[in-house]
Amino acid sequence: MRVILFILFIFIVKSAFSQYPPAAGLIGSTAIYKDSSVFVNWAKSCIVKRGLVDISFSRDSLTTGGIELDVIGIADNFTVSLGDSGEAVVSFYPAITNGNGSDFAVFENSFDGKFLELAFVEVSSDSIHWYRFDAVSLTPTDIQITTFGLLDPTKINNLAGKYSALYGTPFDLQELYGKPYLNIDSISFVKIIDVVGSINNSYISFDSQGNKINDPFPTPFYTSGFDLDAIGVIHQRTQSVNELTLENIIVSPNPFVDYISSDIKGCGSYQLVDITGKIIFTDEFCDKILINTNFIEKGIYLLKVNANSKSGFAKIAKF
């Protein structure tokens, strides 16, 4: 019995002092600079569902910092702010694939690598089924990390925002091997979800081990929450003839109210997808897409089109 208790004690002590890779620039860090030769591609599109400036104070004030185009292309410290519990769905063509080691990296804009705003990272092959990396936060939760409080990166794992601006936090798709409906060799979508760092049980976010995640809270500014800069691709699928992309998909009107249309030469199929990845409508077409949109709510959507052995996407909005 004493032996069992001793082993249990050692396990608890070891867990309490677990160390993950340190800040960018330090020995053992996994941070990847934006100009690294490991990056072969960058995000092609982004749809953001804004979160609140302060989830504990107002239910109708959304963050306004940045625009979705700030996420496209190489990390440059121009960001879109997600707000408390806000989300961004980012698309990639060709798809990200599972290679040796990390497969992509997420960039935030921490100015010093200590004031860190964190986010969960999920991936999907079909924009319907989503799987989250097992995030871990070992930051103490007895006292709230305040608005301009600091975090220790060695207490954080598999959470975006771990590193300073222009240094990406890497993620390895091999960790999600065996998930149903997920092809880790073909990841077309990455979702970034802001962590609400309040230790108040009314708003708290939990890591994969059931720990409360404590990060600076509140951040009651128009740039509230996780500030997404870019997502760099390290391993991507070899593009085949059947994976060529449709170019210049023009949807009108955009923004729209009661209908949308698009002229695309040839026959194929399309899907209308909301910000969560849910398919709202799907059908086939020849030369023209015409959709009655009276039945859908206001918001941001993605029109996914497949025709002539090619695929394409267009971001659209209903006002």
Q: Write down the overall geometry.
A: globular
The major beta sheet can be summarized as: 5 strands, antiparallel
Structural class by helix and strand composition: mainly beta
Mean pLDDT, to the nearest integer, reads: 90
What integer value in Å does the Rg equal? 21 Å
Task: Report what the structure shows.
The protein is mainly beta and 319 residues long. It has 2 domains: 214 residues, Galactose-binding domain-like (Jelly Rolls), CATH 2.60.120.260; 78 residues, Immunoglobulin-like (Sandwich), CATH 2.60.40.3080. Helix content is 5%, strand content 33%. It has 1 helix and 19 strands. It has a 5-stranded antiparallel sheet with strand order 1-11-6-14-2, with no helix packed on it. The radius of gyration is 21 Å and the shape is globular. About 4% of the residues have low confidence.
